[in-house]
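One record is given unchanged without comment:
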Amino acid sequence: MAETSAPLRCLVVDDDPLAIQIVENCVSNTPFLHHVASCESAVAAAEILRQQPIDVLFLDVEMPLMSGLDLLRTLQDPPLVVLITSNKGYAVEAFEHDVLDYIVKPISYARFLKAAQKALETVQAYSTGTDAIEAPQNQEFTFVKVDSRLVKVLFDEVRYVEALGDYVHIVTGQSKLIVYSTMRAVEEKFPASLFVRVHRSFIVNLKRVQTIEDNTIILDNKHIPIGQTYLREVFQRLNKF
């Protein structure tokens, strides 16, 4: 990953030469981006990613031989990914791969710049010591998959998250979302500045904690135990909050 003072290294992948030209023009007009290479296939992109560091991948979805999503499945340590496609139907699968953003063609520079700024904010979060897969601190929401839908979750509205087998319950003041996920994935996606793991089965929003009694958090009349291995960190976080 590039230092925040250096331009972000970009790779553009699309089987349409005109689309490549449009994205390259957007990159060249964005001071904090640097165009490294472009290619017309996911296969060629895989080789470039193997040979040199890339910070941001601007990736088309529908390409012959191997799609953009197929490429993402092969990458063990992918760069930040902005998917660019003419088909809105890939949005759910795209966010399953934790893509940074999803742009629907035709591309406007304003929409491109919004995605580029999100990439810059994410890299800046890395450089200041933020966990590499934690949401940027100024991001106020995320999307989670509920059945076949992507549901927007405002971090501030989340009370707690509870593990139940292969699922988690994300509890807000208005709803309880059942999401196929792990607690580790939730920890990685929810901002550490606001949430803390208090038990192997619970993550709580620090702002919503009302009372602690006998190592039990009382939150909206829900009694949440604090696990012995989490006690020290929980009380440190609460004292600093």
